[in-house]
Amino acid sequence: MIPVKGYKGERVAVLGLGRSGLATARALLDGGALPLLWDDSPEARTKAEAEGFTLTDLTRTSALSGVAVLIASPGIAHLYPAPHPIIASALEGGIPVDNDIGLFFQSAASSEWAEMETPPKVVAVTGSNGKSTTTALIHHILQVAGRPTQMAGNIGTGVLAIDPPLDGEVVVLELSSYQTELARALTPDVAVFTNLSPDHLDRHGGMGGYFTAKARLFTQGGPDRAVIGVDEVEGWFLAGQLAQGPMDDRVIRVSSGQKLEGFGWSVFARKGFLAEWRRGKQVASVDLRAVKGLPGAHNHQNACAAYAACRSLGLAPKLIEGALHSFAGLPHRSQLVGERDGVRFVNDSKATNVDSAARALQAFPKIRWIAGGLGKEGGIAALKPVLSSVVKAYLIGHSARDFALQLGDTPHEICETMDQAVSCAAAEAEAGDVVLLAPAAASFDQYPNFEKRGEDFTDRVKTLIG
To answer: What is each CA distance from 305 to 77, 207, 208, 386, 466, in whole angstroms?
Structure first.
């Protein structure tokens, strides 16, 4: 646990008692603060009480009197589309509003760090797509390299629940826009921006607000090294704002598809090969085509970002290359489940929108595509340009028939259930095909979440292939 510093003996309100909220409450207590806990959900309040916490109804008039700071969980709106009433009360009363990420950066460093041979470092990863894979990949590479490392944030453990970092340790954080937008302290040693595509726009008041929330990771504290994906105009803009000029190697530009040779430091992938360039010269190359855990251009972008972050930490190219080959991928994100008679089965249940599904569909040449669920606005019409690799689609769930109408000439079959879709796709697949679950839809019509949907696919595939 990271004890929270700066609030010893003071009243600190905590709004939201999920995983991060409870971890925050424990860390506040450990640092000597007096936490006042509340959640709008009776179930969450019951869980907190069962752990021994005393609740304070923060909705009551004057409940925030004497509070030093309000700590809000990531899912609670503080600005758009409207502030939560308790947050609004705090703002009107001049009470600072922060989150666990801000407390982490405020509290993580200790006096012991000055006595360490290699003080710990923090790598923070944000972006629209690929941040979980990039975070896990950096963590994996560090493990293979023998560096002590912990992974936390939007993936795995809450940031305040990790152990105090050891000599030479690297803490790798995945940070969502909800987390970067509100944190009052953001001071990573290395910050990574993967890419940007429309998401959470109601929460951020539009695309500009969404980009600004991400950019705060770089502009709020100023990392020693910034790894910036430049496959969208926002990445180019951010890199330009941070660098003093094209040769400023504090900014490492990364791309999947573009040559980036005219910069102080860049890492890019083209035709399956990763290249690292420094001051006009190529210094390393990695063949990504045989890295089974990172298929497709979108994962090659993730590989470039992770490679660049690890190089900035001093790891050698050959060591990173070896670690890439042993990376198994994350569950539900281009996860290779198994193979039978030359047919691969890939679980990308996390592809809940057309943008992420498009990336998955561009990763393989011959696809038996399992899609459907609770479709989003516009359905899958936007996927038409990337359907050339689809041999046949097998449609499930609430939106199966709507999706069928948007597939045009692409062969398809309405299967309704995962069981039927997996059975049909496996029976018709030929050597060289990939049976891909990339739903382009939410899961809530048939499953409680995308994880359960992916687990169902995985279980059925493993039963099928033995």
So the answer is: 30, 23, 23, 24, 36
Q: From the centroid of its chain, how far is CA 386?
A: 24
Greater confidence, 466 or 237?
237
With contact defined as beta carbons under 8 Å apart, do 427 and 415 qualify? no
CB-based contact 151:136 (threshold 8 Å): yes
The string over 174-213, giving b where at least 16 C-beta atoms fall within 10 Å of a residue's C-beta and e elsewhere, is bbbbbbbbbbeebbbbbbbbbbbbebeeebbeeeebbbbb
Residue (of 399, 389, 411) closest to 440 by Cα position: 399
Q: Cα–Cα distance between 22 and 110 in angstroms, integer?
A: 23
Q: Which amino acid is at 381?
A: A
Global pTM reads 0.88
Domains in the chain and their CATH numbers?
11-98 (3.40.50.720), 105-325 (3.40.1190.10), 335-465 (3.90.190.20)
C-alpha torsion 24→28→33→38, nearest 10: 20
CB distance 203 to 236 below 8 Å: no
pLDDT band per the 50, 70, 90 thresholds, residue 355: confident
Dist CA 252 CA 123 (whole Å): 14
Residue for token pair 């696809």: 367
Compute how many other C-beta atoms are within 10 angstroms of the C-beta atom of residue 109: 17
Structure tokens at 427: 């029976």
Pairing label, strands 149-153, 170-174: parallel
Contact yes or no for 367/391 (Cβ under 8 A) = yes
Please give the angle made by the CA atoms of 51, 54 and 58, to the nearest 5 degrees. 125
Length of the chain: 466
* Residues 6+ away with beta carbon under 8 Å from 189: 121, 122, 123, 223, 224, 225
CA of 190: how far to CAs of 109, 171, 180, 306, 399, in Å?
Answer: 15, 10, 15, 11, 42
Question: Contact, 435 vs 370, CB < 8 A?
Answer: yes
> Cβ(464)–Cβ(360) under 8 Å?
no
- Residue 289, SS3 per DSSP: coil
Query: Is 360's pLDDT higher than 90?
Result: yes
